[in-house]
Fold:
Amino acid sequence: MRHRLLLLCLTFSFATCTEQASPEQARAKLQERKIPFTEMAFLEAFSAYRLQEVQWFLEAGMQPDVADGAAWRIGIQKNYFQPTNLLMLHGAKPDQVFSDGFIPLVEASAYGRTRIVTRMMAYEPKVDVQDLWGRSPLMMGAKSGNAYVVEQLLQGNPALEATDQTRRTALQFAIQRNHTTVTNLLLDAGANVNVGDQQATPPLVSASYLGNVSLVNLLLKKGANPNATNATGYTALMAAVRANQMAVVDALLTAGADPNRRNVEGWQGGTALHLAAQQHNKAIMEKLKVAGANPNITDHFGQTADALLIRNEAVLDPAKQITLKPLK
Structure:
């Protein structure tokens, strides 16, 4: 235990690495300075980064998780490395779940606090702990985009396929925030590149909508299904078309994306060609047709993509309005 304490002290200043005072000695030091031994005074010293006082409070017996983890919250929000170190040295647990669902390791990961998370991992916390919303440290680290935090968390062998209440994994969090480096780390660690297929939004669909060509190519290289869909049949190609991302459309078509897939459960029920018509993007419509898009496929309203384009042109330019026969 003494060797472990000395090891953890290596990153401290000289003042915090000295031999610990007894509880009586620590209380005496506080009394000499007329500092009351109360939770409020402790939290005030912690917030003000008066490190020596914080150490005396803890040595005197102040519980590090007072006020439902208030010190933890202050330390993480303000990125106080040494004060949070002191909390852990005196028994605070990074994976503790507080009454409102707050978990220090989850919060520190969400803020991308590299040094704090690194020190937390030295205490071998439960890396798969989840808060009231099902969010794990890895999910929040991925969302933050901090690759160093994610690397530290991956050393704890977390469950890569764990999901939060919205059924998102760490990989989906990373992609939805456009974090290419973190995505690569998770994929190298074994994350399922096709997670969410036919259920939640697959990673490739999210990346396509963002228009991040490098991220799309990375996912395809790692084995992403170019025709993966969400629960309504929405594909990556549709997402790219909806976002007017020509470069992504090219990458997906090259990888074998089917331009004739229909969003069968969607409100319109059309293909990527219909979406291009809705966007009034004739260049993408032409690209899709060259790739084999069938212009005769109709949506739920019986419209072809070309008919939908004409309707949209009439809306965009009243001078082009024409009388259309009611759809049967």
The chain is about 50% helix and 0% strand.
